Amino acid sequence: MRNNPWWHEGWGNGTLEGICNQYPNMVDFEMLCTLGDNIVAIVTGQLMAIELCLKDALLSRYYLHGLEMAK
User: What superkingdom does the record give (predicted)?
Assistant: First the structure.
C-alpha cells in the first residue's frame, strides 16, 4: 500500500486509540473507535455492530452530526 502515490507516510504510524484521543468530541471518530475496539467480537458474531451503535444514541448522533471530519 505504501507504494501508492496517494499514501502519506505518517498514516502508517497512527493507532486507533491515538486517532480517537485526538478527536474526542467528533461522533465520526467515536463510532469508528467504538466499532474498531469491538471488531473481533463483531466479526466472530459475538456482538452485532448495530447494538453498539444504538448504545448512548451513537447512531442517532452520527446521523445528526456525522461527517464532521469533512468540514
Answer: Eukaryota
For residues 8-20, one letter each, b for 16 or more C-beta atoms within 10 angstroms of the residue's C-beta and e for the rest, the string is eeeeeeeeeeeeb
Whether the predicted model's global pTM rises above the 0.90 cut: no
SS3 at position 37: helix
Which of the 8 DSSP states describes residue 67? -
Q: What is the pLDDT of residue 59?
A: 95
Cα distance from N-terminal residue to C-terminal residue, the chain: 27
**How many other C-beta atoms can be found within 10 angstroms of the C-beta atom of residue 57?**
12
Q: List the grid coordinates of 40.
A: 473481533
C-alpha distances (whole Å) from 11 to each of 6, 14, 64 are 11, 6, 28
